[in-house]
Every structure is written in C-alpha cells, then in structure tokens.
Amino acid sequence: MTSFVKRIKRNSKRIYVALLFLAASAITVYFLPTQGKFRFEYQKGTPWQHEDLIAPFDFAIYKSDVEIKVERDSVLKKFRPYFAIDQEVVIEELSKFKDNYNARYLEALSRANIQLKQQPDSLRENVYKYCFDLLNFIYEKGVVDFTDILDQTKNGSTVVILKDNVATNREVDEIFTQKIAYGYINKKLSDESLASPLLSAVVENLRLYDFVAQNLFYDDKTSIQVKNKLINNISLTRGMIQIGERIISRGDLVHTENFRVLESLRKEYESVLGTSSGIYWIFLGQIVLILIVFMVLFLFLYHFRPEILDSVTKSLFILLLILIVIIVTSLVIQYSELSIYLVPFVAVTIIIHAFYDARLAFFIHMVTIMIAGFLAPNSFEFIFLQYVAGAISIFSLSQLYRRGQLFYAVGLIVLSYSVAYTALAIIQEGGFVIDNPYYYAYFAINGLLLLASYPLIFLFEKIFGFLSDATLLELSDTNHPALRELAEKAPGTFQHVIQVANLAEEAIRKIGGNPLLMRVGALYHDIGKTGAPAFFIENQSGRSPHEGLPYEKSAETIIQHVIYGLELAKKYKLPKLVADFIPTHHGTGLVKYFYTKYVNENGEKDTNLAKFSYPGPAPFSKETAVLMMADSIEAASRTLKEYNETTIDSLVEGIINSQMDNNQFLEADITFKDVFMVKEVFKQKLLNIYHARIEYPTMNK
User: Fold this and answer.
1) Cα dist. 334→36, 330, 376 in Å?
2) Given CB 3.0 to 4.6 Å as the disulfide criterion, which of 180, 308, 477, 653 pairs with 314?
3) Pick from 222, 203, 229: which is nearest to 130 by CA?
4) Residue 222 shares a structural domain with residue 283
5) For residue 325, what pLDDT is reported?
6) Which long-range contacts (CB under 8 A, 24 or more apart) does 265-272 make?
7) pLDDT at position 243 over 60
C-alpha cells in the first residue's frame, strides 16, 4: 500500500495531466452536434465513388443557400415600409391654428398694409377656411421626417400608410416633408386661379409653416412583422424524392442538381438519427473518436515533447487553446448566418509556434481541425483549406519577432485560402464559376482576426509564464537597464558577456536549440558582477583587491555574484528562463583558483569544499550547458600565454572534459555528439581570432 501511494505521489503530475486530457475530451464531446453523420463522402464535380444510392425514405429537396438568398432578395424588393399617422399631432396643430387665428389675422393685415375697416367681414371667414383646408390637406397626405423617408424607401417609391388600422399604399411623391409643405403653400398662394391677390396677401403673412409638424412616423414594429412574415413564407424546399427512387449510381458525376439531392438526404438522414434512439450510439461513437484524437496528441507529446506532459501549466495551455477554438467553432455553427471560415484556426499555429517549435505547432493545428471537422458542414473541403493555411503559416512565420512578419504571413494565409477555395470551386462547378463569392470576404475577415494573435501571445505569455521570441528580442537590446548598468560598472564583464553570447549562439545553432534564448541568457548571466566589479579580473586595471584577503573570503566574494545576480533578475523582472542562466553557468563547480591556492597551503584534508563551491544547480538544458562551456572557455582564453592552434585545442578539450568529469551535464538534455560539435565550434571560433591576430598584428596590443 505504501509503495502504491509513493508511486502515485511520484507520478502526480502525469496523473493531473491525464485528468486534464480527459476533461478536455469531455468538454469537446459536449460541444459536438447530437445528430448522426452521413456515411458517404462526396464532392461536387467528382464521380460518385460509392455503390448505387437508393432513397431510404421520402424526403424533400432543399434549396441551396444561393437560391434562398435570391428569393429573399426578391421578396424584400417588394416589401414596403409602414408609416403610421399620429392624429394627436393633427388635432393639436389645427387647434393651435384656431386659437391663434384672430391675432394672426390682424397681424397679417398689418403686414400687408390692408385696412381692416375697408375689408368685408366675409374675408376673415374665407381666409380661415382656406388656411384650415390647406393645412388639413397637408396632414391628410402626411408630413414625414426627410431622414426617415430617405432611409426606408431605398428599394422603392411606395410606402404603406396606417390610419385607424387601415393600410393604404401611397407614393412617396405624394407625401410632404416640412420643407416640401412650405413650398406647396407658397405655390398655392402664387396660383391666382385658386386664390385672389388679396387672399394670397393675407395668407402669406399668416406664416402657416408654424403649424406644419411631422404627423407621419415610421412604424418599426409593424414593418419588421410584415418583413419577417414575407421571409418566413419563402419555401425552403422544391420537389420531393420518393422512397426507393434511385438518387445516383456509381461513377455518375456529382453535378449541381444531384448534389442538392444528396445534401438534402444528408440533412434529413442526420436529423432523423439525432432524434431517434440511435442518439445514444452516436454519443458513444463521439466519445470514442474524441478520446482517440486526444490519445494521439498525448502519445505525440509523450514521445517527442515529454517536458510538456511533465508540466501541468504547459499541458493546460495547449488543451485550453484547442478548447477555445472548438467552442468558438461550435457557437459559430449554431448561427446559420455565420461561416465557419470566420474562425481563425491558424491562430492556434501562430500562438503555439511563438513558444514552441514548428513541428509541435503544426501537429496541434492538425488535431484542432480534425476535431472541428466533426462540426464543419463539408469536412473534406474544410480540413483541406485549413491544412493548406496552417502549412503556409508555418513556412512564413519562422521569425515572428520581426516587425511586419505577421502582416506578411496573414497576407499569404488569406491568399492560400482564396486560391485553394477557387481551385475546389472550379472542380465542383466544372468551370470558373464561384458559387459563393462571400467566402472571399470570410477569408479577409479571418485574416484580420489573425492579427489579434500578437496581443494574445503577450496575454498567454503573462498568464502562463512563457517566453516568446518577441520578449527575448526586447531583452537582447543592450540598452536594457540591467545591461546598461553592467556596461557602466563592469565594462570588462560587459565585453566578456558579448563574446560569450557570440560563442554560445553559434554552438547552439549547430546542435539545435533556441539561439535567441541562448544569446539573451549569455548577456545576463554575469549581471551580478556589478555588486563588486573590481574583484573580477576582466575589470581590474591595477592592484587586485584579493591581495591580502583569505582565500575563503575571496571565494565567497566571487560566489556572491551568482546570488546578487538572482536578486537583480527579480529587480528587473527577468523571465525565469533567462534568470536560470545565472545560477547554472557555474553549476555546482568550484572557485578553482582560490580552492587550489587554499589546498596548496593547508592541504586537501582541511578544506571545506562548501566554502569554495557554487550553489548551483547544474545546467538542465542544452542552452544552460552550452553557456557553462562558453563562459569558462572565453574567460580562460584571455589568460593563454601562447595563443595558437595547439593551446586552443588543449584549452577547449581540458575545460569541457573537466566539466563532464564533474557531472555538470547529467541533467542537461545534451548528448556526447552535441558536446563534440560544441567543442569543434569553440575551437573554430577561437582559431578565427588567432588567425586574425596573425593577419592584423596590432590586435595583439
């Protein structure tokens, strides 16, 4: 029992990761459609590769999306917007006119220089009746806001007027706006066949436009109801297929007409399966298939990237990314007006590639689109297009940290989508006929959404503690405060880390690793020397401060640069992967110079190794192991009395073999072949310096 518990504790991380995979599988199954899957695969423009297909039941032939859209557009062209007359406005404005008429009448006479005593009493009544009838006529036709009538009559010149629940068609030209009403009143007054000059003069000065207000308003509710009713009346089907009727024979070309029949059968077949008792078997099949997909992913990581399975955080990141895309895809599929090609699947590749290698990024992309294929209406076409786009993203995003690289890649991805879709459309239609040109708009929108990958990389970087090439590039800038401080306080060390970075980067390129991480780690590994720069030989120009100090004290001061370096890493908020280079570049080795001095004077038996040992840990990756070698060799090469091929070879072999003998690389992912290749790179780089000194003797000074 005890051994069982110990085994569980020892493998607790793997158990947690396995539970994460099971949880991801369960969530994925939950978002899969409940209907069955049509067992035949077919493409328009290709021969039917299966046995003769006979209709298993009666079913209607569904119209294509294009046909429905054409009918919908045709129906909407006949639609007329509804406007309602507000009688309260009419009553209010006419009452206002009546109440103000006498005062306005006298004012109008005065304005027209007409003497009241000289006019008959009938004039007052005639003017009132004329104006009242004029206003009433305008309100009968309706006064509408210009913007409303302009917005709602783009597809026609007729509207429907609702008055007392009675609908009347009316031409837009018959309806007044306030401006048109003013012009109509002026026109009537200038027409002498309709009014005497005296009447016109009085009415003109009554300022009737003060009583013209909007009484016709757009009826949004009624308009939407009528519009929806027209759309809902559109038939989604055309014709029927009877049970036992032959649909297609083996070898027949799948053309437009029988393709619609096949699509209708598929839709009905999947719908019937989803509502019958077979739904439980469908559910079981989905569980098995999704478990297989995630098992394949697990096995891939187990064999090629085991460090991901050893980390709950890294495994969670990958599974979460897959789930987010699958959930978004499921939600998009539920809304028939949205296309699955709006979902930026390639973002998975871009984000994974920012933190890991291209092979892993492409494999995760393939897993994601395979799962999404269960949701996609046309699985083969969908998977093919996403496969091409994912591959293009891998080829075009080798250096994501470069400015403009993402825009360039997105352009190629959109182009690849468009070209591949056009090729499929040509095959399906038998000519250059694009059945749905909106797909190109979907691809363009998809590309715009892919641009959001860059801020998402930054977000995931902060949430999961990862390190992207973009961040590494920022840290490689020698204007970083930590490196500026190193250059000011310890210029010799600054030159040392530059040389170490050059050596280490060249070596890591040779054996396979992250060159950018290697360079950044090399630049920051010695920042702790700013605490006591004079105690390190590369910064000394006169008397050494070690003179007169006990050897243990000197060793303690030298070792302190590792501890202080970690403190500075926290101060400057360096990522953990970069800070790891600080304690590992000396590993658990000795401060050999002072250790040897102490042993020579006191004997090995009386030596406390702990006082002369670095705290470690030893290197645990290719990059940290290469840095340890490069750091020691670069420093030692400065002390060579004779700088030639023999001494260089002896120096490199001696230092690296000594580090291997001291078991400094046991935890590092580095092979004997890697070590051999690193030695050769270091020798060649140092020999290049040697030959340069021969060619340019002034370099020796």
Assistant:
1) 16, 6, 11
2) 308
3) 203
4) no
5) 95
6) 265/38, 265/53, 265/55, 265/59, 265/241, 266/38, 266/40, 267/62, 268/57, 268/59, 268/60, 269/36, 269/38, 269/56, 270/35, 270/36, 270/37, 270/38, 271/35, 272/36, 272/57
7) yes
Q: Both tokens of residue 106?
A: 């006298």
Helix, strand, coil tally for the chain in percent (to 5):
65, 5, 25
Per-residue pLDDT reduced to its tens digit, 318-332: 999 999 999 999 999
Task: Provide the H-helix boundaries in 538-644.
Answer: 551-571, 576-579, 581-584, 592-602, 609-612, 622-637
CB 94 within 8 A of CB 211: yes
pTM above 0.70, yes or no: no
Smallest CA-to-CA distance from 286 within 346, 326, 339, 331 is with 326
Of the candidates 139, 112, 264, the residue with the CA atom closest to the CA atom of residue 196: 112
For residues 646 and 502, state if they share a domain. Answer: yes
In terms of residue numbers, what domain contains 348? 2-30+277-464
Q: How many CB atoms lie within 10 A of CB 223?
A: 18
Residue 555 and residue 672 in one domain: yes
Q: Is residue 194 part of a domain?
A: yes
Structure tokens at 182: 């003013």
CATH of residue 626: 1.10.3210
Phi, psi dihedral angles at 420 (to 5 degrees): -65, -40
Task: Tell me the average pLDDT of the chain.
Answer: 84
Query: In terms of domains, do 225 and 287 share one?
Result: no
Same domain, 121 and 198: yes
Residue 104 main-chain phi, psi, to 5 deg = -70, -35
Q: Tell me which of 427, 446, 464 is where a domain ends.
A: 464
